[in-house]
Each structure stands twice: as C-alpha cells, then as structure tokens.
Design brief:
Radius of gyration: 30 Å
Order of helices and strands: HHEEEHHEHEHEHEEEEEHHHHHHHHHH
Oligomer: single chain
Strand content: 5-15%
Helix content: 40-55%
Largest sheet: 6 strands, mixed
Length: 481
C-alpha cells in the first residue's frame, strides 16, 4: 500500500486465531476503505478502539464500537443447540446510531455460497464426508474463499479433519506438491482463481468451475455435471467436473423447498437456515448409528472396581457395526434411500472417520477415568488398608495423586491428601507418611517432591527405580509405557 506505485495491489490483512469469519468480513469492509485513504493513522485509531473491546465470552452479547459504528454480536457457546438460530442481539442500551446487528459471528450465508450448485449440494456433502480432493475454481478470491468455507462447514456437527485452503495461489509453498502427477492428490479442498490451475490440476478427481452468477428464471443458473475429459482448455465452461457416483439418491424435496422460498421472496438468511438444517439432519442421520455402536463399546459401570485397572474400551469392528445397520441404520431418521453401507465403507477409509474415532475414543477414555475415580471415592479405603503395609499405602497415595493430576489443576496438595485419607489411616501408616513428609522439609507434595517420595517408597521396598528418580508406579488404569 502507501500509494508509492499505482500499479501495486493494496491489501489489508486481519489475522486472528478465532474462526469468526462473518465478523471479520464485516470489520474489513468498514476498515479497508478508510485505511487505503488515510493509511497508518486510521489503523492506529482502529487498533485503539479494538483494544478496548470486551473479551469474547461464550454466550455473551457484545457491543463493539468501531469507526462510528456499533457492531452487535453474540459469541457462540458450546451449549447452543445445533441447527437452532440463537436469539439475535437486542438493542438494550438504546444505542445511537442503531447498531449493525450480525446474526452470527462465524456462519456464512450458505444460500448465497451455494446458489450455482444447489442441485449438487448432496453430492458435494458426500465428497466432503469422504474427504475427497476437490478444487474450487472461482471468478474471485471472495467467491473462492466463501465456497470452500461453506463446503467444510456443511458436515457439522462432524468436524472436517483435512486441510483446506480457501484461497490458494501458484506462489504457495505446496504448489509443486499439489500439482505433481507422480502421486495421488492429497485429501484437501483448494480454492483458486487462476485458470492456469485447470491445466496443472487436471489429474485431480473433482473440479468445481464457477462462473459469474447468472439467473435462469427465478433460480440462479446451475452448473452441470461434466466428465473430467472435457476439462482441457483454460476457458472451460462452469461445471462440476467429476466421475463420482453418489451413494445416496438425490433428495428432490430440498430444491422444491428452496424454489418455494424464492417464489415467496424469503430472505437469504431464511434460505440459509433451511440449507443448514438439511445438512445437519443428513449428517446426524449418518452419525447416530456410529454413536450408538461406539457407546456399546464402553465397559459396563458394574465392571469398574476401585482397586483394579478399569476394563479397556472394546475395539471398533467395522463389519460388526455394518451388521447393526439393518435394524438401527440411518433409515430410521432419514427418508433418503441409497447405498448407506457402501457410504460407510468409504467413510471408514477417510481421515474424517479417523478424526471422529480418535476424538470419541478420547472422550470415552476420559469418562472411564472419571467412573474409576468415582468408584475409588465411594470405596471403603479403611477396609482395604486394614492389612496393608506402609509401603503399599504410600504406593496408593502416589497412584491416586498421579490420577488426580490429570483431572485437577493445580495438583492436589499435602493438605488435600490429608483430608482425603483422614479417619481411615492407621497410626503406623500415618507415622510412615509423616516421616516422608518431614524428609521434604514440610513442603507441599508437589512437583519434584513427589519424585523424592517415590524414591523413599522404593527405599522402603528395598529396590531402586530404574527411571532416575521417577515414581515406579503407574496411575490406576494406565499401563506402563
């Protein structure tokens, strides 16, 4: 920028770790014109205002003053119901001028993004579900970026676990990697604008070529499915170039509902809500059988005992799961027919399944640890320790402490552990533990102190830990590495 050379592009880039795309687009539309006119003084004033904004607390309504405008937004929360439209911010402070109200900080206008491909949204949903390599060739960076972000968001609540580049150029460092023909295209969605990519990415299995939006009656002109062999010239016509055959039959009802909304002059926001609800119900119908089967892999609560490692989570058996679909498949919640079993088989080979399974397994492991802790807390420790030696008691303390560390911050102190065991320790056990405590100079049993305690425990056992001072015991429920 700076107006040094009129031929140079001027750019204003907003960088954030928060995925509030809708809010940031609004900010740039307000800031950019002023910045290109007044340059650094404008940016300093804007930064000063933003610095005074409140923290984005989940579920909270925020008034964000900027350049004479107040932007009113609500920060999303994990407790928000999927598919429901959160309450719009209400002007409770009689702000003047009237605030600019954003219905969402992160949700895009899906209807506007998918206008040229409304007849293919179900096919595109399958491509995203299976993490197929896809190129979106758009007429502008804005259209490219919004289309890619809309595609990756249509799987909610399932997380899209692959890479995606809303705006990819020939100057990106991965250009050679993505354009090489010596290996299969990676699982990624690329948004591009340079027609040169038509030649360099011809070996990719799916290319969506978008043009300028044109109307065909009431409905925007829809791109057609075309064979990849026809994508040879740089001036190739708009279309979805792919040989992909969908597993599910097309839902014609969706297009009818959208057309009805167009005839009734329904707002773009309402049309987007309809599309988002459609994607949500489709994804949930796909996920519900997986969630039910995954829950069946969890050990029964009665099998979790205080003084033994909790039973492991059973492994996911794909064929066993597929056999459950006959009586508990997506047909119970979805009217769309098709080869659901074939779709699941392909899904099992995709990074999205791997990401979903890892996350669910992590959550179930955490739940198992919590249930184990609950079993320990409800057990009669005094009865268990009645005939235990001093060393075994210290072993128990170390194991419990290491287990608690994973669930509490900061770790439990000496005083907390005294409370935990008060009333159930024998005099002999207390004497041994106090002697170890005095060895530590009366400090809280935190950090390195626990290593010292481990050494003392090992001395009592008449052996040395081979791991240079680390406690030899493992937390309950955790196997040695």
């Amino acid at each position: 920028g700076g107006g040094v050379c009129p031929s140079l592009f001027q750019s204003l880039v907003l960088v954030s770790r928060l995925p509030y795309v809708n809010l940031f687009q609004c900010l740039l539309q307000l800031i950019a014109p002023e910045y290109f006119d007044k340059l650094d003084p404008c940016l300093e004033a804007v930064c000063s205002e933003i610095d005074q904004w409140p923290l984005p607390v989940p579920g909270r309504m925020l008034n964000l003053p900027l350049m004479g405008v107040v932007i009113q937004v609500r920060v999303p929360s994990r407790v928000d119901k999927l598919g429901s439209s959160p309450d719009k911010p209400v002007n409770q402070e009689n702000l003047l001028p009237a605030p600019l109200v954003l219905s969402s900080v992160y949700e895009l206008d899906l209807f506007r993004c998918f206008q040229p491909v409304l007849t293919h949204v179900q096919l595109l949903w399958e491509l995203m579900l299976l993490a197929e390599p896809l190129v979106v060739l758009a007429p502008s960076p804005a259209v490219s970026s919004e289309t890619v972000l809309a595609l990756t968001s249509c799987l909610a609540p399932l997380k899209y676990c692959c890479d995606y580049r809303p705006y990819f150029t020939i100057h990106d460092s991965e250009f050679k990697e993505y354009t090489t023909r010596t290996q299969a295209p990676p699982n990624i969605v690329l948004g591009v604008t340079n027609p040169f990519f038509i030649k360099t990415l011809q070996h990719w299995p799916h290319i969506l070529r978008l043009g300028e939006l044109k109307m065909a009656g009431d409905l925007p002109k829809q791109v057609k499915m075309k064979k990849l062999a026809k994508l040879r010239s740089l001036d190739a016509k708009p279309g979805l170039y792919s040989s992909y055959k969908t597993f599910l039959h097309k839902d014609k009802g969706l297009l009818k509902r959208l057309l009805k909304g167009i005839h009734k002059k329904r707002s773009s926001e309402a049309q987007s809500a309809l599309l988002r609800r459609y994607f949500l119900e489709l994804t949930q119908s796909f996920l519900i059988p997986l969630e039910h089967y995954m829950a069946s892999l969890m050990p029964l609560q009665k099998a979790i005992t205080p003084w033994k490692n909790p039973p492991p989570i059973r492994p996911f058996q794909q064929e066993e799961f597929l056999r459950t679909l006959e009586h508990a498949g997506p047909q119970l919640t979805c009217v769309i027919k098709g080869d659901w079993i074939g779709l699941y088989r392909r899904f099992f080979r995709s990074p999205n399944f791997d990401g979903w399974y890892r996350q669910r397994h992590k959550e179930m492991t955490h739940k198992l640890e919590v249930l184990h802790l609950e079993a320990i807390s409800e057990a009669n420790i005094g009865t268990w320790m009645k005939h235990k030696s001093e060393v075994e008691v210290v072993d128990l303390v170390l194991k419990l402490r290491e287990k608690l560390v994973r669930f509490t911050a900061p770790p439990p102190s000496w005083g907390q552990l005294c409370c935990l065991f008060s009333g159930v320790w024998t005099l002999q056990s207390w004497a041994g533990f106090i002697r170890i405590f005095l060895l530590l100079g009366g400090r809280n049993l935190l950090g390195v102190d626990w290593c010292v305690l481990g050494k003392e425990r090992d001395r009592l056992k008449g052996r040395q830990d081979p791991r240079a001072g680390l406690p030899a015991c493992q937390p309950p429920g955790v196997q040695p590495s």
